[in-house]
C-alpha cells in the first residue's frame, strides 16, 4: 500500500505528460485548469449542502447517516478533481456516481449505515438523545 501511495504522483504526472504528447501541452494545461475549477465548484456546493442538512437536523428533521456519507463522498470527489492528474479524476468520477460508489464500497468491505432519527418529546422543545433500558420494579430489588 505504501508503494502505491509513493507511486501515485509519478503515475499522475505520467498521464498528464501522455495527454500533452497525444494532444498538445495547452490541452493538458487546460484540462488541469478545468478539473481544478470543477473540483472547487463541487466542493463549495457540497459544503453548502451539508450546512443545509445540519440546519435541518437542528430543526428536528431526519438526517440519514447515509445521506451524510454521500455528502462527504462528494466532498472527497471535489478534492480529487482538484489534484492534477487523470487517475485522481477517474477516482473522483467513481466517487461521484452514487450506485457505483456504493458498489465499490461494498466490494471493499464497507458496511451499510443505519439512519439516525432524533427523538422529540411532544410536551417540550427538548431533544432527547441516547439509549436507555427499562428496569422493572421486580428486577431492581
UniProtKB/TrEMBL annotation:
Bilayer-crossing regions: 25-43, 76-98
Keywords of the record: Membrane, Transmembrane, Transmembrane helix
Keyword Transmembrane carried by entry: yes
Any Pfam family matching the protein: FxsA
Any Gene Ontology CC annotation: membrane
Cited InterPro entries: FxsA
Recorded superkingdom: Bacteria
NCBIfam families named in the record: PRK11463.1-2
Name of the protein in its database record: Exlusion protein FxsA
Species name: Pseudohalioglobus lutimaris
Amino acid at each position: 500500500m505504501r508503494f502505491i501511495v509513493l507511486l501515485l504522483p509519478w503515475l499522475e504526472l505520467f498521464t498528464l505528460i501522455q495527454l500533452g504528447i497525444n494532444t498538445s501541452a495547452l490541452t493538458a494545461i487546460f484540462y488541469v485548469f478545468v478539473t481544478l475549477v470543477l473540483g472547487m465548484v463541487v466542493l463549495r456546493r457540497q459544503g453548502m449542502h451539508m450546512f443545509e442538512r445540519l440546519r435541518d437536523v437542528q430543526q428536528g428533521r431526519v438526517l440519514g447517516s447515509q445521506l451524510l456519507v454521500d455528502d462527504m463522498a462528494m466532498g472527497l470527489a471535489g478534492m480529487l478533481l482538484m489534484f492534477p492528474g487523470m487517475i485522481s479524476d477517474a477516482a473522483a468520477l467513481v466517487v461521484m456516481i452514487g450506485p457505483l460508489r456504493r458498489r465499490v464500497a461494498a466490494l471493499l468491505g464497507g458496511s451499510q449505515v443505519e439512519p439516525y432519527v432524533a427523538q422529540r418529546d411532544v410536551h417540550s422543545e427538548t431533544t432527547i438523545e441516547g439509549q436507555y433500558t427499562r428496569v422493572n420494579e421486580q428486577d431492581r430489588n
